Amino acid sequence: MAEEHQLQVLMARQPVYTKSQDVVAFELLFRDADGRFVEGLKDDEATLGVLLGTYSSIARCGSVRSLPCFLKVTDSFLLNNDLPELPRQNFVLELLGHSNITPALVERVKELARQGYRLALADYDPRDPKFAPLLNVVHVLKLDIQLLGLDNIPPLLQQLRPYQLELLADKVETQDEFRRCLEMGFALYMGYFLSKPEAVKGKKITGNKVVLLQILSELQRPNATAQSIEQIALQDPALTYRILRVVNSAAFNLKREISSLSHAITLLGIEQVKRWVLLFLSAADKDKPDELTRNMLTRGRMCELLAEMMGRDEPINHFIVGLLSQLDALLNMEMTDLLDQVPLQQNMKAALLERTGSCGELLRQVELYERGQFDQLSRALDAPYYEVAYRHSLNWAQQVLQAMQAE
């Protein structure tokens, strides 16, 4: 990671989803050293380069593409003409609800729209008349469903219909809320609904994930051998082939091709094989979006990198805890039921259930970072190291996901 350029800002991204839970954009969560957001972009080509590279890119069907980013802008930033030369197709400028909406600001926003920028308005309050002049100008309107209340939204949507806005449901926290917003006809969605399980009582892990759990159990046995592990893996030859394909991908930078699971264990050790088995345990099934797996991979890798940077014992265990922290959502199971079926050390189970110990503490740090709650980080490291770890983890997750998706 030594080659990573250090930025003087903290950045994370949150996906913007369509009705089919595909990611079509990212919202940037952004703070500079003084705790301000977009001001950190001024005169900083390196930051802009990273935005257009890592933060806007996504792996889909084995290839990488760039998606637009929602960038929150203050009224002073807009009115002072501090806007750097941003590629219009790459950014949606997002005005904030607490903006002072003066005639000068409305005129500036109209000018940006004429220049071809896409514009969004957040924190919309239908009771406040100050927003009215912007409704004919902006393209996307974000509605905070927690603040407005789901029951109050249908009549509001009727009032907004003449403006022909693209409506974004914000703070969608559960699958039930997502379904209700879907019925109301929202085009876009943000929130943590993907990370919440729709728990089915007494559900058992099925399909090739059973074989993965059997391999995981064998990997925990003190007298396990490369051959005993491979014998279990061969119950599902297609799965074994896919694991080896990922192992041989660029994400692992191996000098020579690995031809079998026993070869991988001999060459790289049981701990590394455990990593790949867990990667496939975290792979989304057809009824779950790839974004959940992407987030699990990013989270696991960032936990591991922070553990390495802080000199913690067993960074691989931090990876495992980070990766598995959303397996309940992937499999629609309660975490307690899930952990009864997954062979893990007791301290790792405690980290997942209670966020205790070194693994639990760093998982909590990564969760805060993902949500852009940068002011709550423990700052055991200098701030720029968190951003470098996050950015590296996004890139790593992308490489792994590409290898997992490649035919």
Protein model, in words:
- This protein has 407 residues and is an alpha/beta fold.
- It has 2 domains: 9-190, TIM Barrel (Alpha-Beta Barrel); 208-405, no CATH class.
- 48% of the residues lie in helices and 13% in strands.
- The chain contains 19 helices and 10 strands.
- The protein has helices at residues 45-55, 75-79, 103-114, 132-135, 145-148, 153-160, 175-184, 208-220, 226-233, 237-247, 261-268, 270-281, 290-309, 315-324, 327-331, 335-341, 346-354, 357-370, 383-405, and strands at 9-17, 23-32, 57-60, 63-66, 69-73, 91-95, 118-121, 140-144, 166-170, 188-189.
- Helix 8 packs antiparallel against helix 9, helix 13 packs antiparallel against helix 14 (315-324) and helix 14 (315-324) crosses helix 17.
- The chain is globular.
- The mean pLDDT is 87.
